[in-house]
Amino acid sequence: MPSPRLTIVSVVVALAALILVVELLRRRRLREKYAVIWVVISISTVIVAFFPGVLSGVANLVGIQTPSNLLFFSSVVILFAVSLQLSREVGLLEEQSRRLAEEVGAAKLRLDALERDRADYDESEPSEQSPGG
């Protein structure tokens, strides 16, 4: 059984993490699709902080002898999943940036061509002379 001090610290940290996620969502600094995993992790941490026996029960259920090993393994799996998701997002954003840069380049070429045509047209137009000159 963990010490009461450890339980209090765990609960405070878990609740602070949950409050941070909710506040980031409220201020629109965190997108909903990422917030779901952080809310689940925060709530799970609060539950484990309040009821540390849950971690021992789950560890026994899956055949892990030490609950802290389950905690480390779960953390690695979650970090791997988040890293994979963010890598996928970066790849999609890189592709989108490349495509947008190509579109901007093509638009700039069209604009330059139109400006050149306009300049050629203005030069070929006969200039009107003023009647007094």
Could you explain the architecture of this structure?
The chain has four helices and no strands. It is mostly helical and 133 residues long. It has two domains: 51 residues; 58 residues. α3 packs across α4. The mean pLDDT is 88.
Number of strands: 0
Q: Unreliable stretches, pLDDT < 50, 5 or more residues?
A: none
Q: What is the alpha-carbon Rg in Å?
A: 31 Å
For the largest beta-sheet, the strand count, sense and barrel status come to:
none
Oligomeric grouping of the chains: single chain
Structural class: mainly alpha
H-E string: HHHH
Task: Tell the overall outline.
Answer: elongated
Distance between the termini: 105 Å
Q: Give the helix proportion (percent range).
A: over 70%
Strand residue percentage? under 5%
The number of distinct structural domains comes to 2
**Kindly state the mean pLDDT as a whole number?**
88
Q: How many H/I helices?
A: 4
Transmembrane segments: 6-25, 37-58, 70-87
Keywords: Membrane, Transmembrane, Transmembrane helix
Protein name: DUF2304 domain-containing protein
InterPro entries: DUF2304
